[in-house]
Each structure stands twice: as C-alpha cells, then as structure tokens.
UniProtKB/TrEMBL annotation:
GO biological process: phosphorelay signal transduction system
PANTHER family assigned: CYCLIC DI-GMP PHOSPHODIESTERASE TM_0186, CYCLIC DI-GMP PHOSPHODIESTERASE TM_0186-RELATED
SUPFAM superfamilies: CheY-like (SSF52172), HD-domain/PDEase-like (SSF109604)
Keyword vocabulary terms for this entry: Phosphoprotein
Protein name (database record): Chemotaxis protein CheY
Originating organism: Sulfurimonas hongkongensis
Record-annotated HD-GYP domain positions: 155-353
UniProt feature coiled coil, ranges: none
Amino acid sequence: MLDNFSILAVDDEPFNLDLIEAAFMEYTNVEIINAINAKEALEHLEQKKFDVVLLDISMPMMDGIEALKIIKQNPKLKLLPILMVTANTERESEALKLGASDFITKPYDIEVLCARTLNYAKLNRYHEQIINQTEILESQVQLRTKELQEALKLSKEAEYEISIRLGRASEFRDLETGGHIKRMSLYSELLARLYGLDKQECELVLYAAPLHDIGKVGIPDKILLKPGRFEPHEFEIMKQHSVIGAKILDGTQRFPVLNAGRIIALQHHEKWDGTGYPSGLSGKNIHLYARIITVADVFDALSSKRCYKEAMELDKVLSIMKKDSGTHFDPLLITLFLNNLDEFLKIKEKYKDEEFTDCDIKSLEERQ
C-alpha cells in the first residue's frame, strides 16, 4: 500500500500552482495544498502536518527566503524538507545556509519536480520513523528495563537497516551496484580495524559507509547519469551531493550510525592536501571515518567493472593509490591498505558483482 503524502505548494502566481497540481494529478496518494503567499503558507504549517514544502523565492511582502527563516526557527519544522522554487539561482547559497533542502528551477521539468519532491517526502518519513521510535523507547526506560533492552537492540538493527536502505536510494539512481556498497563497506570496516579502532567504532564505520553517496538523490539525472566527463558547471552541481547528503542526515546526532553517515557524506570527497570539496579540509581536519571511506570507495571504483567502463588492472590501481598517498589519501591509511592488501582482495573476490544479490551486512559477531 502506498504512503499518502501531503505537499504544501507556495507561489504568488496561481498559474504555477495549477501546474504543480497538474503534475501530481496521476499520484492518487499525493495531496497538494496551495498557498498564494508566505503568510498563508505559515498558517497552513501551524494547522496541518506536511511532508514537503515547495516554496517560491520571489513573492511580494514576504519572500521565500524570509519564510524559510521563520520555518526553520520552529523546532517542530526543523527537519521538514523545503524545496526552493525559482527561475534563477542567485540566492541559492543563502537558502542552503538557512536550511533549504534543494532547488527546483522554473520552468518545471514535470518528471524532475515529481521525482525529487517524492524522494524528499519518503526521506522525511524515514526521519520521523527513527525519531518516533526513539521517543517511544525512551518513555519505556523506567517501566520495563528488560523489555527496553530488547527494544534497543531492535532499534539498533532498524537504524542499521535504514542506513542500508538509504544507501540503496542513491544506488538506484546511480550506475553503481549493490556489490559496490557491500565491498566498500567491508573494506572500510577492515581499514578501521587495521587503524586500531575498537570493535564498536569499526561496526559504526561498517554500517555508516552505505550512506556516503546518499546526496546523489538530489542531483538531476541529466548530470548524474551523464556518460563521459562533466563540464565545469556540471561538476559544480555534482559536487553538491556531499552537502545534500549531509543535509538529508542533519539533526541525527542522537543516532550514531546516521550521524556518522552525515559526517562521511559531507567529507568523503575532501583530500589530504586540502584540494577536495566541499570545504577544502586537509590532513586530520578531515574526520577519520571520511578518510577511511575515501580509500575504500576509490579502490573499489577503480578496480570494479561498470556498465560504462572496464575494471582497471590491479597494478595500475595500486600505482594510482600509491602516487596519491599524501595528496588525495591519508598516507598512514594507504600504508595499512597496501601492507594488508591480501585481506582486501579476499573481500573483493568473495563479493563479485555478478554473484551479488543482496546488500545486507551482517554484524561483526556474525562474521567472526
């Protein structure tokens, strides 16, 4: 049975509101509520729960940026996805800093409008499920200690499962495979163990790794699925997937796996020498989890076959990673990787793409 979603569309042009309603006409599980100005939109938000807000930037009296500020100041609406709708991108950076989830440009591409809006609606539901589950568990702490311990175990497993499912969300839109998610997660856990992290942190890295590219759900298909090299302006948009991923997982500090995933999503394209993105971090200013995932992700990407490329020869892969030690990669992690290469190759051999049918990742206990 499909989930029912409620979307608030805010625009001072009735014609644009009509277009949005027409775009979602075939979705019987989607309810569109219209607001002709920001004041009316804020009133709707006080009275009704929404899954996504489509907010026009250019409006008289109170524009979309001012409305966004007010919405994000309300603790109850902090995690509500706000998609800014605009004919230009001059205020894009300002809106993102204020908490906007994404942008949809005018004139609308109907398929992009619907797909992106529903993607954020579903992700919002994932957030709510986690938060609601935690609140329920906390209310039971003093009443049923034994039952709570079992419930916490279930909650942890559910958080891991959500991490994997969210990882799959980006996988379905990209040209990656389930095998890539599995292998790079296991490579990451192995490298964390070799680095000397304790069992709990190694498991945290293992389960957070699938979230590294979750931000790709916010990248347009014409860029994400483009064969060949990006034009400079396309690459700038592609680079936003790290910021989008962190925004999707914002507010999850109480959930260790999702919070680790937020850090990884934001920083896994930073480079040791400071030439990466989005923040130009360098050295140990890059979180260790992100440095670990970078090595694992690049190794699997270079050494695996894709529908658009053949797998690179192992010697060439190792040559590239050695050359980039100290520039792209943490040199200590590369040393650990190369000194224990046989263990990584065992994972690669065990989880081949053609044999891969599921992306479940068993806990450390189950694999010891």
